[in-house]
């Protein structure tokens, strides 16, 4: 699991295959089939989705419905399981017919593309993806940019909620975007799939109301803010957490981390900070073994020596992620604890 605590949001961290329903950022168990009719639901293609076992498209007033998400993931992974092949060291085929299906329906991340032994693309843990989509707080009519196309699964969920024309997904690798485009079309979805550097966004598709990244950032790209409408929301992995930013204008944004840890493939094409292993041997075992303490070390980017970080961590009561935040102001960007203008702050660029 990816949770370091149990609270209301933990209910969001359930497998998509278990029939949860996400509406306006909250989860509730599905109480049987809903019969909401969406305008245009009878158009060509809706029946094709049902025949493939992908479920109904949601009512426009709602969020992501159970039924479709896990089945879409299964279809996309069955059509592109190069990472599973690499992990197994063989082709998952007739002798092992259930491996792709079991992986698709499991609440676990799956490697989908390796290069020279390095993971370059994956299908994230479904419960974490569900929580991120709920925290993205999409509304009817929103235009969404996804950074990191992967298999196309996340884009399929967003297109299922908002419609194809309001979803754009971008990835640096042509083979990833070409495969994602094929997978999405096979599943009956046609969002805009772009090959390019995610750090630069997709200006020709701007402005966006929401940006969601499925790759870890070193800092928030300035291009993203410039392509957002005022009041837009950006949700992205950073350090080992998830930052939720509200965009004020093209040069200013601010927000706090969510409570959950998150580990993603780094954004390719962007500069990566040198995060060499810190020597923690001199620290007490609770600090060495604390995921929250390591979050502070990664976030502060080596500007705090381990002993300094430990002293701060203890003095501030072993703060959880929600007390940390990030501010972007013009050319400056910094992480902070409790207060953007307080004494505990660390530059990110």
From TrEMBL:
Region listing for Disordered, in residue ranges? 23-67
Q: Where is the composition biased (Basic residues)?
A: 25-41
What GO annotations for molecular function exist for this entry? protein-L-isoaspartate (D-aspartate) O-methyltransferase activity
According to its UniProt record, the EC number is: 2.1.1.77
Q: Does the keyword Ribosomal protein apply?
A: no
Listed A to Z, the keywords are: Cytoplasm, Methyltransferase, S-adenosyl-L-methionine, Transferase
Q: Report the GO terms under cellular component.
A: cytoplasm
Record-level GO BP terms: methylation
Listed Pfam families: PCMT
Q: Which residues cross the membrane?
A: none
InterPro entries membership:
PCMT, SAM-dependent_MTases_sf
| Transcription regulation recorded as keyword | no
- Report the family membership: Belongs to the methyltransferase superfamily. L-isoaspartyl/D-aspartyl protein methyltransferase family.
Coarse class of the protein's main subcellular location: cytoplasm
Q: Where in the cell is it found?
A: Cytoplasm
The protein's superkingdom reads Bacteria
What is the protein's name according to its record?
Protein-L-isoaspartate O-methyltransferase
């Amino acid at each position: 699991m990816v949770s370091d605590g149990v609270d209301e949001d933990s209910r969001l961290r359930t497998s998509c295959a278990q029939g949860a329903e996400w509406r306006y950022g909250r989860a509730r168990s599905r109480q049987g089939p809903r019969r909401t009719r969406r305008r245009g639901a009878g158009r060509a293609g809706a029946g094709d989705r049902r025949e493939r076992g992908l479920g109904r498209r949601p009512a426009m007033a709602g969020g992501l419905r159970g039924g479709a998400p896990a089945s879409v993931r299964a279809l996309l992974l069955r059509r592109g399981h190069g990472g599973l092949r690499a992990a197994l060291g063989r082709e998952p085929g007739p002798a092992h017919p259930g491996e792709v299906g079991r992986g698709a329906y499991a609440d676990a991340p799956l490697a989908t593309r390796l290069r020279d032994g390095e993971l370059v693309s994956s299908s994230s843990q479904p419960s974490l993806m569900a929580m991120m989509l709920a925290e993205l707080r999409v509304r009817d009519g929103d235009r969404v940019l996804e950074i990191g196309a992967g298999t196309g699964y996340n884009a399929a969920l967003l297109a299922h909620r908002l419609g194809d024309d309001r979803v754009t997904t971008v990835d640096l690798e042509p083979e990833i975007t070409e495969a994602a485009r094929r997978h999405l079309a096979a599943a009956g979805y046609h969002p805009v799939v772009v090959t390019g550097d995610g750090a630069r966004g997709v200006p020709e598709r701007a402005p966006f109301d929401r940006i969601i990244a499925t790759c870890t950032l070193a800092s928030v790209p300035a291009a993203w803010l410039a392509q957002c409408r005022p009041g837009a929301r950006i949700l992205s992995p950073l350090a080992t957490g998830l930052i939720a930013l509200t965009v004020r204008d093209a040069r200013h944004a601010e927000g706090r981390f969510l409570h959950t840890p998150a580990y993603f493939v780094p954004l390719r094409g962007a500069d990566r900070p040198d995060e060499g292993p810190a020597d923690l041997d001199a620290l007490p075992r609770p600090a060495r073994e604390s995921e929250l303490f390591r979050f502070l070390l990664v976030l502060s980017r080596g500007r705090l020596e381990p002993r300094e970080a430990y002293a701060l961590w203890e003095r501030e009561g072993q703060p959880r992620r929600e007390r940390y935040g990030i501010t972007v102001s013009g050319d400056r960007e910094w992480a902070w604890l409790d207060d953007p203008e307080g004494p505990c702050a660390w530059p990110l660029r």
